[in-house]
């Protein structure tokens, strides 16, 4: 369904981004990867996604999403290497958990830069090409925390609410073109970013990791289970496939019922 399309997916060496890259590659898109990791992890991701595209290593940009120049260069690299950037998935993100009074300024700056500003710089760089080719898909991986808050995540919640707002503005600006811009708002997804939050909760409350997961991390997720990476990736794939053109400016929840409660 994505044959002939090209896709740039930020933060695709791990977790949700990697899952989206795999599903889009299997659907026939040419995919460029981005993200950090040990050299062997990056090589493995390139080989795996490359195999799903029919062989060879998937192209990769090492751009740091906290640096606007590198974000712009990444989009240009995608347009040069793949001939276009038809699909942009803004997925790279980090988390940090602390009460607001103790929240380190440097963590605030990093989360706003990586989770919010990078989306702006990438969209700004990619839209002219999408307009020229008269087709495009921007998919921003926001979060349930783009719609509601939890304590101790001030930078993350602020950034993700910003992503949802940015999504709506871009959607309005492209509304009369065959380009769409949408956000996906996952609940807790089984990835390194979320799994890292279980152990500190277990220690804080003096319970097992199993209990910490169910009673504390997934406190607000009525399904009481992890969302799987592929359950988020399939939403991203659908937004880029045929029949999705009427969905624009939406914040689509994939959260086991969190926002319904
Ligand atoms: P992850 O830690 O598994 O993957 C994050 C990816 O971003 C990695 O590839 C990492 O290398 C990359 N990255 C981090 N900083 C970067 C930088 N400065 N420049 C370039 N790449 C960078 O995390 P994940 O859970 O897959 O998260 C992906 C996105 O989904 C994030 O935006 C996150 O906020 C969002 N999200 C995750 C969950 C969850 O529960 N896991 C829930 C809602 C939203």
Automatic annotation (TrEMBL):
Instruction: Please state the Enzyme Commission number of this protein.
Output: 1.1.1.30
The alphabetized UniProt keywords are:
Oxidoreductase
What Pfam families does the annotation carry? adh_short
GO BP term, example:
monocarboxylic acid metabolic process
**GO molecular function terms listed in the Swiss-Prot or TrEMBL record:** 3-hydroxybutyrate dehydrogenase activity
Give the UniProt family note: Belongs to the short-chain dehydrogenases/reductases (SDR) family.
Q: Quote the NCBIfam families the UniProt record gives.
A: PHB_DH, PRK12429.1
**UniProt name for this protein:** 3-hydroxybutyrate dehydrogenase
Query: Which source organism does the UniProt entry give?
Result: Neoroseomonas marina
List the lineage, top down: Bacteria, Pseudomonadati, Pseudomonadota, Alphaproteobacteria, Acetobacterales
């Amino acid at each position: 369904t994505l044959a002939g399309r090209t896709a740039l997916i930020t933060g695709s060496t791990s977790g949700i981004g990697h899952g989206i890259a795999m599903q889009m590659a299997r659907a026939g898109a040419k995919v460029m990867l981005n993200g950090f990791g040990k050299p062997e992890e990056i090589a493995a991701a390139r080989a795996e996604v490359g195999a799903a595209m029919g062989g060879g290593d998937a192209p990769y940009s090492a751009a740091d999403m906290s640096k606007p120049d590198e974000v712009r260069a990444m989009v240009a690299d995608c347009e040069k290497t793949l001939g276009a950037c038809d699909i942009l998935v803004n997925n790279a993100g980090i988390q940090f958990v602390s009460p607001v009074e103790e929240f380190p300024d440097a963590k605030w700056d990093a989360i706003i830069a990586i989770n919010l500003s990078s989306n702006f710089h990438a969209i700004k760089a990619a839209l002219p090409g999408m307009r020229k080719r008269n087709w495009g898909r921007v998919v921003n991986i926001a979060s349930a925390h783009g719609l509601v808050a939890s304590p101790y995540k001030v930078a993350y919640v602020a950034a993700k609410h910003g992503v949802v707002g940015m999504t709506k503005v871009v959607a309005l600006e492209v509304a009369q073109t065959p380009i769409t811009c949408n956000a996906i708002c996952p609940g807790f997804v089984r990835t390194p970013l979320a799994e890292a939050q279980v152990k500190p909760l277990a220690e804080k409350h003096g319970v097992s990791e199993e209990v910490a997961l169910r009673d504390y991390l997934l406190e607000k997720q009525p399904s009481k289970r992890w969302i799987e990476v592929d359950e988020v990736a399939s939403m991203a794939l659908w937004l880029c496939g045929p029949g999705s053109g009427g969905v624009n400016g939406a914040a689509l929840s994939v959260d086991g019922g969190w926002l319904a409660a």
